[in-house]
# Entry
Amino acid sequence: MQSDYSIELGADDEVLELPWSGHNQGLQYYDLKHYPELLRQVEEAQRVQELGSFLAAINSPESILETAKCDVWASTDISPEEEIFAAPVKCGSYIDLLFSDEARRFSLPHHENLATSLTGLLKLAPEIPAAAEFLIRRCYYHYANDQTNEGFYITFYLFGYDSDDVSAHQRWAVGLKLVENAILQLSLR
# Structure
């Protein structure tokens, strides 16, 4: 499994506002770490069982992380970098990851250490047609007292590749389980 990370803190790079809501789309942030029963409200988790299992594990008390946003899709749009997998179909996802510990949310070195450790563990995993990328980005944490603190979060992208939707989804699911195991292993340290 290929894995890598990068830091995206430029003025034009993506940022996350937490909590967030997509007012016109009926979407919103659910604090699954403290209210795991809200997982039933996450449409993507209901639609894709493996994603629901991942979200439950990462938001569990055993994990040092929690989640903020996610999505899963299938595509035949293969970039030149992805041609090494020699597959016409990919199943992709993104999941925004946050440290549960408030102090770590504001530490770039903690995010870099996590991303380095995750990519290192994943490089030890069996070779499968899947790729994980961890992007460290800026997050604005909003509090009830109208205070906002600037910190960080990680967008985790995962792609599984194969000849058809079902097989690409299976590759993606294996990759997702590998990342889940790596996160939970790092949570024990």
Notes: Residues 2-187 form one domain. The radius of gyration is 16 Å. The chain has a mean pLDDT of 95.
